[in-house]
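Q: Given only this backbone (280 positions), what sequence would you predict?
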């Protein structure tokens, strides 16, 4: 069992969580947190009782090393400095705890925070941002910018993940069409990034967390579709390199060669099974 304590480290230097507690309206809380963070208030240690999270936090991640969705959660936890226990799930033989914690979708990731589950990766990342709001805000304070960030994160799920999956599961002309569609979507993302270092501006944020696990799949997708992302979207690839320089990202992402071997091997096995069954 790993207990979360690291997020108290900054408390005395930033004064970030002062007195607002868990039930405060989160947008207001984020605004206040921002103001307080910049004013470097020194807090007596007794006030740590009032922080947005408590010393007794138990954080468990129901995980699967390959999952880009689980990777998002690992990155967000690392960026916030939250210690957690990762439990690898066997998705072909789901554990009773897993089925109890995510009875609707029965999918990883699931974050279990003090016994209570939170499901769906983008919802989990937003939850992490609200609970551990003492440092590295992931979503912006401005409501319109927040909405924009959520829009692009949703775009990643609807177009990048789904487009990659389509490429992976198709062949011939259908695969070529899926590839062109995917490249078009990557170019749209590159346009949204523009000349900014990260999607939200100068600091790593919500859209970066949502997309970077898929950057790791570019290599596999390139091998499948015989193209080079860097030739199509050089700024997006440079963004990927920039994100990889962040420790929260590099330590959370699986090795892309290992990932590629896993997926291409999996695809071959699947095709062999189809052929054996007489399917085309
Ligand atoms: N929309 C979900 C997608 C999660 C997902 O697709 N998880 C996959 C692993 S990558 C899974 O658990 N699959 C097992 C299953 O569907 O039975 C999220 O964002 O968390």
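A: Predicted residues:
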């Amino acid at each position: 069992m790993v207990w979360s304590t690291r997020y108290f480290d900054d408390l005395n230097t930033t004064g970030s969580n002062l007195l607002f507690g868990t039930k405060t309206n989160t947008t207001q809380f984020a605004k206040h947190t921002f103001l307080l963070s910049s004013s470097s208030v020194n807090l007596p240690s007794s006030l740590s009782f009032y922080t947005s999270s408590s010393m007794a936090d138990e954080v468990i991640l129901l995980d699967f090393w390959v999952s880009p969705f689980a990777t998002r959660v690992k990155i967000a936890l690392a960026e916030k400095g939250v210690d957690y226990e990762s439990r690898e799930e066997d998705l072909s033989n789901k554990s009773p705890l897993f089925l109890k914690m995510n009875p609707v979708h029965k999918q990883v990731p699931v974050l279990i925070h003090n016994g209570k589950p939170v499901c769906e990766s983008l919802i989990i990342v937003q939850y992490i941002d609200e609970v551990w709001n003492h440092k590295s805000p992931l979503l912006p304070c401005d409501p319109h910018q927040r909405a924009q960030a959520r829009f692009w994160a949703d775009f990643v799920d609807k177009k990048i993940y789904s487009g990659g999956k389509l490429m992976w599961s198709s062949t011939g002309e259908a695969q070529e069409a899926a590839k062109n569609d995917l490249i078009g979507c990557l170019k749209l993302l590159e346009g949204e990034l523009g000349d900014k270092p990260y999607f939200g501006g100068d600091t790593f944020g919500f859209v970066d967390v949502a997309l970077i696990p898929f950057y790791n799949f570019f290599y596999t997708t390139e091998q499948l579709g015989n193209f080079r992302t860097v030739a199509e979207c050089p700024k997006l690839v440079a963004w990927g390199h920039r994100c990889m320089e962040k420790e929260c990202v590099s330590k959370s992402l699986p090795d892309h060669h290992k990932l590629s071997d896993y997926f291409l091997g999996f695809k071959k096995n699947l095709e062999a099974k189809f052929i054996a069954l007489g399917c085309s």
